[in-house]
Write a structure and sequence with these properties.
ten-stranded mixed β-sheet; alpha+beta; 3 domains; Alkaline Phosphatase, subunit A; Jelly Rolls; six-stranded antiparallel β-sheet; 14 helices; 20% helix; 793 residues
Length: 793
């Protein structure tokens, strides 16, 4: 008797076979089951019935594969484009000075919406855009860096608000996102997650970009899916973030064409441009030399005239006046005018370059023959132009501090504005000038300067109207239902087993073929940092609470300004305040805001941010890091700037050539680094303080096992840093002392220990922008780091 190879069966079958053999009295015509450790080995005699007789015949069976989800027949590809911090009147299609031929071409083959609205800041707009719900409903009443412990402000996107990519993915779409992602809680942006609120857990099958509100265009902190990656090239090699994003999107499109040609795609292209820092190559800036010498007052008038000529605003629209808090252009000195004009030149060049890179992505779709059935929704700004540069603008970094330097000093370096050396932004007065014809700017929910941006919609296979204006009142929450309707997808009641919050948005498809169709949206609230606005049946009421460039009072100012009232059916630009004339109507509008605010988790207004915010360092006074730890963001790293007491590093220094970073916090525009160079231990601070602080050890570093200590005197902490390059440091500083193997090695005063911002805390290297000009990143430590212990106040 010859045994065949054993067939392994589940243990439950063992008992069945044993019973069967007992019943058959082990007749030789049957297979024999050999029990082997909880499995059964079957064999057959060379004569008798086959062991397969009791099983279905192979020739009678056929393979059945699970069916993948299929998109509805004719469903379009969807490209959703979102720019950052662009004014209503910036682009040439809206009468602005920045040449944007891609936007112009898209508008000429589709529709331009001139009453489209976003939220007054980034995270809220993106949350509403991707979910189709109001921002406070889904925890984004503020940007994620300013999250507060209240339901409307905690930055924790609920599972009951499934975003567009998840719904499309489950309906047969391929999905990918490129660029800025500003909707993950800051304490979850870490090498270990959790990752369930990262793009790739919210429906995007692929993500390449950065996490947070802003980044360097030259030396960004990037992620591919959930893994931190470094830029593929340097600024000296021609690297630029927006170009890189376009390259990667095009690569993804080509991969999709090669492997899933018949499957529609959803591509979300949300650049970090043109948010500060304003970074762009000199050849783009050169196009605008002298184009802003007339100043913001005249620019605003010129833009307004072009807007009327183009028909993108009504013929009876009025140009609103400059707020008294902003300076007149003619009040500036000649040097100030040159400096301010240069700021606008850099910005305009950045915007044109961004338009060009977006065009490359759209051209790749056209080259693949897919543009006819591709729905493009191009939102030209996630809020109005930014006034966060303050009245003078700034250029952080470089050889001076722009907060304290005069215009003549700053002008000496004007040719370097836009380079990797500076984190620069324009004056708040430019933001007002570019927001023509509206009042105010980013952060302000009470006026259209903060909330109204152009929307361009193109779908050649469906939208027959070409180059027409649509003036229905619309909001960013309307994008999701528009996509679902045009894709033929009914939004599900439950997603992944979770009952969904109903959509707030209303599809814009009704307006495609009927320019005179009444607005489907009759009610919409707005709120940001306590400033408020409410639209209802053609009327608007709003109240602001603070100056948008006063970043020291982010949660203050409530009650300082009166409510205003506008009849938008007759007043496109909010030029005539009717509050005193119609007090009853104002009261009705205020009540409407209160009702919507309660329904959408808007209260409490302007809650204090950061208090008790989750973090792995909460409650710890001592934290130990080991070799290989890097890219720790502000949400998971200790706040060294306000709490640092001591850094203790245990090193193995093999020889006198050993060098490199031990600990780096932040980067070129506000950072602190502890490193070894030329046999000496160095602590260096760079950033907003008026001068660098650098402490070099008085003795060379010995070889072997070495303990080095940087100790900071007790006392008042430095001012806490807010996100981004916004805040100047106090001037007093604290005394820092160096010790090598317990022996004093020098002391100096420091005013800053680094702003985390979009930069990170690194052990054994310095990623991102370098804290010190004395080395190039990553300047990895060439010895061994046993551990680094940080003691906090």
């Amino acid at each position: 008797m010859r045994l065949c190879s054993p067939i392994r069966l589940p243990f439950q079958l063992l008992r069945h076979q044993a019973s069967h053999h007992e019943e058959m009295k082990m007749k030789p015509s049957r297979s024999i089951g050999l029990v082997l450790g909880g499995t059964i080995a079957l064999s057959a005699f060379s004569t008798g019935r086959s062991a397969d007789d009791s099983l279905p015949k192979r020739k009678e069976s056929g393979p059945q594969w699970p069916e993948a989800a299929k998109a509805p027949a004719g469903a379009p590809n969807v490209v959703l484009i979102l720019l950052d911090d662009v004014a209503f009147g910036d682009t040439s299609v809206m009468g602005g000075s920045a040449q944007t031929p891609v936007i112009e071409k898209l508008a000429a083959q589709g529709l331009l919406y001139n009453r489209f609205h976003v939220c007054p800041m980034s995270s809220p707009t993106r949350a509403s855009l991707l979910t189709g719900r109001n921002s406070h409903q889904v925890g984004f009443g503020n940007i994620s860096e300013l999250a507060a412990g209240f339901p409307g402000y905690n930055s924790v996107l609920p599972k009951a608000a499934a975003p567009i990519p998840e719904v499309l993915r489950q309906n047969g779409y391929s999905t990918a996102a490129f660029g800025k992602w500003h909707n993950t809680p800051v304490w979850e942006i870490s090498p270990t997650g959790p990752f369930d609120r990262w793009p790739t857990s919210l429906g995007f099958e692929y993500f390449y970009g950065f996490m947070g509100g802003a980044n360097s265009q030259w030396e960004p902190r990037l992620y591919r899916n959930t893994v931190a990656v470094e830029p593929p090239a340097t600024p000296q090699q021609g690297y630029h973030l927006t170009t890189d994003l376009a390259n990667d999107a095009i690569r993804w499109l080509h991969q999709h064409e090669a492997t899933a040609e018949d499957k529609p795609f959803f591509l979300y292209f949300a650049t970090g441009a043109v948010h500060a820092p304003l970074h762009v190559a000199k050849e783009w800036i050169a196009k605008y030399r002298g184009k802003f010498d007339q100043g913001w007052d005249k620019l605003r008038e010129e833009t307004f005239a072009r807007q009327k000529k183009l028909g993108v605003i009504p013929a009876d629209a009025k140009l609103t006046p400059r707020p008294p808090e902003l300076p007149a252009w003619d009040s500036l000195s000649a040097e100030q005018k040159k400096l301010m004009a240069r700021q606008a030149e850099v910005y305009a060049g950045f915007l044109e370059q961004t338009d060009y890179e977006v065009g490359r992505v759209l051209r790749a779709i056209q080259d693949e023959g897919k543009s006819d059935n591709t729905l493009v929704l191009y939102i030209v700004g996630d809020n109005g132009a930014s006034g966060e540069g303050g009245l003078d603008g700034y250029e952080n970094g470089g050889p001076y501090n722009s907060r304290s330097a005069d215009a003549a000093t700053r002008l000496r370096y004007a040719d370097e504005f836009g380079s990797e050396l500076f984190a620069n932004a324009y004056s708040a007065a430019w933001a007002w000038g570019m927001n023509s014809p509206f009042q105010w700017m980013k952060q302000v929910a009470s006026h259209f300067g903060g909330t109204r941006d152009p929307l361009i919609v193109s779908w050649p296979a469906r939208i027959k109207a070409k180059g027409e204006i649509r003036s229905q009142f619309a909001h960013v929450v309307d994008i999701a239902p528009t996509i679902y309707e045009l894709a033929g997808i009914r939004f599900p009641d439950t997603v992944n087993g979770v009952k969904q919050i109903p959509l707030e948005g209303k599809s814009l498809a009704y307006s495609f073929d009927d320019p005179k169709a009444p607005s489907a949206r009759t009610l919409q609230y707005f709120e940001m940092l306590g400033s408020r606005g409410i639209y209802k049946n053609g009327w608007w009421a709003g109240v602001r609470n603070r100056l948008p460039w006063d970043l020291t009072r982010l949660t203050e100012g409530l009650g300082e300004y009166p409510w205003e009232l506008y009849d938008l059916s007759k007043d496109f630009s909010q030029a005539e305040n009717l509050a005193a004339k119609y007090p009853d109507k104002l009261k009705e509008m205020q009540d409407a805001f209160d009702s919507e605010a309660r329904r959408n988790q808007v209260y409490p207004l302007a809650p204090a941010w950061s208090v008790g915010r989750p973090s792995p360092v909460n409650g710890k006074n001592t934290i130990t890091y080991y070799s290989g730890v890097n890219r720790l963001t502000s949400g998971v790293a200790p706040d060294l700037n306000s709490r640092m007491r001591k850094i203790v590093a245990v090193l193995n220094v093999p020889n006198a050539r050993t060098e490199g970073v031990i600990l780096a916090n932040g980067g070129r525009w506000n950072g602190f680094s502890m490193y070894v160079k030329d046999r000496h231990l160095v602590c260096e601070s760079d950033g907003f303080s008026p001068s660098h602080q650098k402490l070099v050890s008085s003795e060379p570093l010995p070889t072997g096992r070495v303990e080095v200590v940087f100790e900071v005197e007790k006392g008042a902490a430095s001012a806490r840093q807010e996100p981004g390059p916004f805040v100047t440091q106090g001037e007093t500083g604290r005394l820092g002392r160096l010790f090598i193997n317990g022996k004093p090695a020098g002391e100096a005063r420091f005013t800053s220990f680094g702003s985390l911002g979009w930069e990170t805390l690194d052990i054994g290297s310095d990623t991102g922008t370098p804290v010190s000009d004395a080395y190039s990143v990553p300047f990895a430590f060439t010895g061994q780091i046993e551990k680094v212990t940080v003691e906090l106040q």
